[in-house]
Amino acid sequence: EIVLTQSPGTLSLSPGERATLSCRASRSVSSSYLTWYQQKPGQAPRLLIYGASSRATGIPERFSGSGSGTDFTLTISRLEPEDFAVYYCQQYDSSVLTFGGGTKVEI
Amino acid sequence: QVQLQESGPGLVKPSETLSLTCTVSGASISSYYWNWIRQTPGKGLEWIGYISYSGSSKYNPSLKSRVTMSVDTSKNHFSLKVTSVTAADTAVYYCGRWSSSWHGYDNWGQGTPVTVSS
């Protein structure tokens, strides 16, 4: 199975700052199958980015995704108070779906 | 508005069978692939498997020998069974709808905590 490693584990930033989150795969992932989620305490994850770079419906433009192959990035251009949460990447390679371990973005 | 709701016992004894149901409202279960995912502080998010309305299924190889999923289109719900549970199966269990367009989960249940303990 493909292992997704997210870094850093925790990102300490202030509102208005830029957040850059990394997701590295143990082998190449099709960009079509790389997805990002946001999870807040006590809630289910919410789909943010699909196909590595496309925003899901209703997701603000400050969220963007990029990358290909084994290296993918989620960028939040200017952090809003509601963006402080845990972010996960996910891939599906037709055999096993896997998630990264998550990056916590904290104030 | 699509809503998913998990239901089932919150406490299961070791070696017994964990059974959960996910009821779907606002959408027909006769489309999409319906999944179970679990989350623990130690292992994070773990995909358990999926089932389609037609009954075709696929399970995570790490759990395959203990997992069974089923679907009841008349009740618009699908179910999960995990046999021979241990403390390692203690988790928050989510059901989720897989979007083939987005290759991700576009709708999730709220999650239900399940503890395995005697």
What is the tally of beta strands of chain A? 10
The main pleated sheet of chain A reads as: 7 strands, mixed
Cα-atom Rg of chain B, whole angstroms? 13 Å
Which range best describes the helical content of chain B: under 10%, 10-25%, 25-40%, 40-55%, 55-70% or over 70%? under 10%
Q: Count every helix of chain A, treating DSSP H or I runs of 4 or more residues as helices.
A: 0
Which structural class do the helices and strands of chain B define? mainly beta
Q: Please give the radius of gyration of chain A in angstroms.
A: 13 Å
Q: Whole-Å distance between the termini of chain B?
A: 39 Å
Mind sketching the topology for me?
The complex is a heterodimer of chains A (107) and B (118).
Chain A: E1 4-7, E2 10-12, E3 19-29, E4 34-39, E5 46-50, E6 54-55, E7 63-76, E8 86-92, E9 97-99, E10 103-106
Parallel strand pairs in A: 2-10
Antiparallel strand pairs in A: 1-3, 3-7, 4-5, 4-8, 5-6, 8-9, 8-10
Chain B: E1 3-7, E2 11-12, E3 18-25, E4 33-40, E5 44-52, E6 57-59, E7 67-72, E8 77-82, E9 91-99, E10 104-108, E11 112-116
What does it look like?
The complex is a heterodimer of chains A (107) and B (118). Chain A is mainly β and 107 residues long. Chain A has no helices and ten strands. Chain A has strands at 4-7, 10-12, 19-29, 34-39, 46-50, 54-55, 63-76, 86-92, 97-99, 103-106. In chain A, the strands form two sheets. In chain A, strands 2, 4, 5, 6, 8, 9 and 10 form a seven-stranded mixed beta sheet that branches. Chain A has a three-stranded antiparallel beta sheet with strand order 1-3-7, with no helix packed on it. The termini of chain A are far apart. The model of chain A has no long low-confidence stretch (mean pLDDT 96). With 118 residues, chain B is mostly beta strands. In chain B, 0% of the residues lie in helices and 56% in strands. Chain B has strands at 3-7, 11-12, 18-25, 33-40, 44-52, 57-59, 67-72, 77-82, 91-99, 104-108, 112-116. In chain B, strands 2, 4, 5, 6, 9, 10 and 11 form a seven-stranded mixed beta sheet that branches. Chain B has a four-stranded antiparallel beta sheet with strand order 1-3-8-7, with no helix packed on it. In chain B, 38% of the residues are buried. The mean pLDDT of chain B is 95. Chain A binds chain B through residues 1, 32-33, 35, 37, 43-47, 50-51, 54, 56, 88, 90, 92, 95-102, and chain B through 44-47, 60-61, 94, 96, 99, 101-106, 108-111.
